[in-house]
């Protein structure tokens, strides 16, 4: 093969506006190259975690760059800083005041529907923000999962059990001897199109499979009526 000289590689990198490291797949950063660590405002613990290999940094990047991540982080910040806690407490205090006034004035029973409504209107800031943050996160991870459905590392949409069931149903409809049906089943399991086999290849496959101890297992145990 013909080697590309260093000067041409530099010209190629300049043409695409990337670094040589990016061109050689030694970095995933196309634009942000050699960004000073102090500009990222990361703690020593976070830097150590990112370098440790204990977490999936690519997945973390996808989470952080998702369009709804800023909202997710803002909701967490509101809860952590207690920004909305006072307002929620004020609303709960107002509900409690109305409830006590109704009790003092009308003496309703414990099962009174109006009291039940006021009781249900009481807000727990912990539960409220837990649901809000969880909803934010669910939207993000669903989008990421959808984006990776076609990846080779992702789990297949069809389970092994469902695939075997479909293959068995197809073999049941195949017209042929029991041995031929078993050959068709094994072909389907191995991803071989049995229709592309020649008669000789089909016969040889039957002979080979007959050497297996499992060839004695019938395809269906259903009794004939």
From TrEMBL:
PROSITE patterns: HTH_CROC1. Residues 2-23 form the HTH cro/C1-type domain. It comes from the Bacteria. This is Transcriptional regulator. It comes from Roseburia inulinivorans.
């Amino acid at each position: 093969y013909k080697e590309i000289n260093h000067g041409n590689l530099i010209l190629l990198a300049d043409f695409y506006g990337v670094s040589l490291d990016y061109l050689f797949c030694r970095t995933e950063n196309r634009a942000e190259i050699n960004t000073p660590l102090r500009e990222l405002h990361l703690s020593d613990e976070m830097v150590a975690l990112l370098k440790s290999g204990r977490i999936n940094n690519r997945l973390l990047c996808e989470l952080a760059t998702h369009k709804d991540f800023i909202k997710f982080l803002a909701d967490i910040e509101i809860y952590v800083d207690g920004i909305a806690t006072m307002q929620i407490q004020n609303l709960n205090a107002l509900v409690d005041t109305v409830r006590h006034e109704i009790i003092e004035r009308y003496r309703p029973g414990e099962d009174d529907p109006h009291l039940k409504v006021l009781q249900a209107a009481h807000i727990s800031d912990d539960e409220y923000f837990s649901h809000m943050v969880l909803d934010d996160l669910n939207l993000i991870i669903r989008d990421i999962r959808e984006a990776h459905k076609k990846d080779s590392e992702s789990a297949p949409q069809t389970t092994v059990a469902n695939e075997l069931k479909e293959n068995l149903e197809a073999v049941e409809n195949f017209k042929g001897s029991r041995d031929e049906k078993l050959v068709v089943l094994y072909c389907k399991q191995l991803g071989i199109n049995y229709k592309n086999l020649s008669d000789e290849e089909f016969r040889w496959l039957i002979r080979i499979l007959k050497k297996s101890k499992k060839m004695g297992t019938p395809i269906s145990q259903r009794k004939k009526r």
